Amino acid sequence: MSLQKSAPPSLHPQSAPPHLDDQKTESFPAYSEEKAAEHHAAQHHDQRPLHDSHKRPEFHTARSTEKVRTFSLLLSNLRKHEDGAKWAPPRRFSADLERSRELEFEVHVEETLKQILDREDTDKNIQITIEDKGPKWINLGTLHSDGYVKHDIRTTYHMSNLLQELTIAKEKGLKCIILSESRINENPVDRLARLIKDEFWSNLTRQIDGGNVAKVGLDTKDWNEHPRPRIYVPRGAPEQHEYYTRIAHEHPEVNLDVVWLSEDPSNEEYVRDLNDAPGLLALEMERVKDTKKGEPDFKGLKFVVPGGRFNELYGWDSYMESLGLIIHDKVTLAKNMVKHFCFCIRHYGKILNANRTYYLCRTQPPFLTDMALRVYSRIKHQPDAKEFLRVATLAAIKEYYNVWMSAPRYDAESGLSRYRAQGLGVPPETEASHFEHVLSPYAKKHNMSYKEFIRAYNFGKVHEPELDNFFLHDRAVRESGHDTSYRLENVAADLAVVDLNSCLYKYETDIAHIIETEFDGHLTIPSGFCAKRYAPGYVEIPSTWTQRAAQRKETMTKLMWDEKTGMFFDYDTHLKKQTGYESVTTFWSLWAGVATQEQAHALVKRALPLFEVGGGLVSGTEKSRGSISLSRPNRQWDYPFGWAPQQILAWHGMLKYGYEQDAKRLAYRWCHMVTRAFVDFNGVVVEKYNVTDPKRPHIVAAEYGNQGSDFKGRPTEGFGWVNASYIVGLNILDRSMRRGLGALATWEEYRNAKAPKHRASSTYATKIVEDLKPHLVPTIPEVVSPAAIGSPSGHEQEHRTDQPHGAASHVPATSGAAHPRQAALAAMRFDGAVDWRHQNVFTEVGE
């Protein structure tokens, strides 16, 4: 076959050359090896003469390698001048996808792990953080070069990511892994969200049944000399007692003790006596296929625990966790926890602080109705959805009457409710020395040792009215969930607090709504959920609950609202006055909907500035907390600490009243602080934060310290409600804000970047290419401030001078060296953003 040579295309400016992809291809006969080699070299080394480039070769051979495809970007397509005039299109530039493909590293696990820990982990805690003094640098060989080509991995964040990935590989028993650059370079917001969804939730998930009751039955807070796994089963669940007894007989080696619970599990003397043999309380189970012997078999419903030393089903922790679980489509877990709460109310009389025997007299802030409604909204299509909501509503009604509207928690004179847990003696779940400073003087007074006095006091052998009053309030503080705080110390049992009464207002409005919209205006109460004051079969109607809500709202405004300060205060039912303690729980009134629109405006405009700090909302004001000293130490629910529940409820409350921008700002502050600690401290996510400390917010010097930071190599759980708060916060933020978080911009930096006077204009478009260069090929690996992109912190700068001999002086564009902020900036370039120096990093096309 012969080919007719095609004429060269016209070189006229208006005539475009034909696109190679549009030309027809044909097969050609073989020709000499010399010509084939010559043509192959021309193809791959691009050494053909420029003036002959328009000619088609007379002969072709099959392509020996895959064709390299290119793409182009016209900057003129991005923006126009402000005056509307078009500017001349610049020459387009192309990228070789073969050359720009993602790097992969072949990493020998043990060798590399030892190398980075020996050199980087200078404080020997098996973490790489900004407090380590190592060089923050390693050189890894790429997979496609068989390790010949080396690339640098630098900065604290990227080195800690490498440590985490190697730790995972070691846990799996892998000797060598292929690690992608994208995993090391992963945007910190995306990385944390991924870890929460794919790892943290599953690692915090528990299940109580025969497969693990021996393990979960053990209690780290059991201070007895000979602890053993023990489970208490309520009288109303005989099938569970039979099941666990069978498990104990089949596995005598686990030494499981299966015990019937008393008919009156809230009796103070009975609960006190159980402290000598504490145990786990049974939870809801589901029937599964019978055993081979025909015996009934059961499986525990999975639930999520807070984490750290808290490994049981906790009350309000579970509600907060459910908010994140639902967003992550883990609705079944949230549904299970609602079922567990209904089981607890049916058999134990209340939602417990946690499912341990020493919590039988103590509950926690009530969130059941809102939790059930959120789950129901996601499972309406399921055949059991309506029954699920009915049972949850019945349980909430029983809890409302028997717990919150009955003595000792209900104060008839004010019409408000209090945290006022029953119990005798010293709370057994605390560390053995927790109350030593309180009890030692009394032990000395009675000429007893510390342990002897505790036992004598618990069993009424000695009488100390002052101690009785102290522990009455201490139990109330623990029941409130805010243990501990100077807001509640020595007064908690007498306080009708804003947070509790806001929750009860929400119960009242939710129950009215559910009965009206889901059950045709009436709900019959069966015997299993009948309150003490009623007979089975009575009917609840919406108007009853609407009236109760209106009455509570009126009472809260009368007794708790202070017009001068524009906020709600706790009400002392003993002194008949407001406490005046400025607490962030004032915003629970917004979440519950109890505040009027005028009150909401005052709360946001006048009260909010008292609590808003760099990391979000602080628990209380420094003024209300008072001075701190050795004799008056920090309390973890006071200034300067902030907690996830306070953030979440405030965000949702402000959104409910239309203060969207305030909610977004607060969510941004909190999520930035969590992200910053995550980046700087090896992926740490903890129970609570010092929201006033921008550098080490996870360090809490109060009481038992923090939970969630004691891990080796990599984080595995985070902490339940902080995990949820991060996901809820991201769900509130818009895309631009999430990019700001990924760049580690503080709220102030982000706000300035988004200010209208700094909006991007076409005058910046011509500088995009120049702006890209210093960030795609940065000369300095670590960044700490947007004012100086590319300049290291003092700490990092110190170690740049100490880098190993032969280390690269700059980091290649495709290496793992870019700081999260730099990586985010580079990624944003083609979305219409410009340089930090133009203060408009977060402007997006189409926003």
UniProtKB/TrEMBL annotation:
It catalyses: alpha,alpha-trehalose + H2O = alpha-D-glucose + beta-D-glucose. GO terms for biological process: trehalose catabolic process. It is an enzyme of class 3 (hydrolase). Pfam families: Trehalase (PF01204), Trehalase_Ca-bi (PF07492). Keywords: Glycosidase, Hydrolase. It comes from the Eukaryota. InterPro entries: 6-hairpin_glycosidase_sf, 6hp_glycosidase-like_sf, Glyco_hydro_37, Glyco_hydro_37_CS, Trehalase_Ca-bd. PROSITE patterns: TREHALASE_1 (PS00927), TREHALASE_2 (PS00928). Residues 113-142 form the Neutral trehalase Ca2+ binding domain. Its EC number is 3.2.1.28. Residues 32-64 have a biased composition (Basic and acidic residues). Residues 1-64, 785-822 are annotated as: Disordered. The keyword Plastid does not apply. The keyword DNA damage does not apply. Transmembrane segments: none annotated. GO terms for cellular component: cytoplasm. GO terms for molecular function: alpha,alpha-trehalase activity; calcium ion binding. PANTHER family: CYTOSOLIC NEUTRAL TREHALASE-RELATED, TREHALASE. Belongs to the glycosyl hydrolase 37 family. This is Trehalase. It comes from Elsinoe ampelina.
